[in-house]
Amino acid sequence: xxxxxxxxxxxxxxxxxxxxxxxxxxxxxxxxxxxxxxxxxxxxxxxxxxxxxxxxxxxxxxxxxxxxxxxxxxxxxxxxxxxxxxxxxxxxxxxxxxxxxxxxxxxxxxxxxxxxxxxxxxxxxxxxxxxxxxxxxxxxxxxxxxxxxxxxxxxxxxxxxxxxxxxxxxxxxxxxxxxxxxxxxxxxxxxxxxxxxxxxxxxxxxxxxxxxxxxxxxxxxxxxxxxxxxxxxxxxxxxxxxxxxxxxxxxxxxxxxx
Length: 258
Ligand code: SAH
Known about the structure:
CATH superfamily of the largest domain: Tetrapyrrole methylase, C-terminal domain
Largest sheet: 5 strands, parallel
Distance between the termini: 48 Å
Helix content: 10-25%
Bound molecules: S-adenosyl-L-homocysteine
Number of domains: 2
CATH class of the largest domain: Alpha Beta
CATH topology of the largest domain: Methyltransferase, Cobalt-precorrin-4 Transmethylase, Domain 2
Number of strands: 12
Radius of gyration: 20 Å
Strand content: 15-25%
Order of helices and strands: EHEHEEEHEHEHEEHEEEH
Structural class: alpha/beta
């Protein structure tokens, strides 16, 4: 083995949100294997001597399978010194980094993870809200609405009235998301915000509620949904519902029953 594989987070799109380490490695890479989510502006920072491989997967049109990508990383590490696996956001969040790491370990390839700004954080910044605003939230749940091939749904049993729920991959339309949140016991007037194309010129922020979500027009992908009392421009008005004003939070009430 001569090479090292760097699993690098490209952030949500704006190259200024890359870490200095990520930018430096892109400039020195011998080969870069990247996802569809990585922006052209970030790709432009890759060394012009580097080979660039698009392993991006768009719904239904898989260019390469995950197993093929794993094998490709190992084979590049046998012949190149700096191998970069570039993923949108952070590699460890819904990025299938786990499978790639396992293959690298099994093949005895050295690797390093370089974190990136995950879409949840980019979206909160775009909406100008704090995900853990202490007046109304005590925890964040990063989850997804996409279903596994077996049709299984995510377990949101731990959601309380002070949880900020961040839903990646909210699906083709919002009716089903809205329905599931309501069925789970979340109040129809609970605020939510849809943020699409974070950190790009097409960025859109749409304020809504769990109940109104079903009727919202679909924003273009990629998009994510932040649900919870923090997802409002008027957090101040909402705090009286479960904040006693003396610095004490009221006991979390379980909203979802699994
Ligand atoms: N590893 C990535 C997530 C990959 S899963 C990260 O850490 O951000 C893909 C999902 O991420 C998309 O369906 C969308 O929900 C979200 N996402 C990624 N980039 C985004 C962006 N620029 N704007 C809005 N959502 C984004």
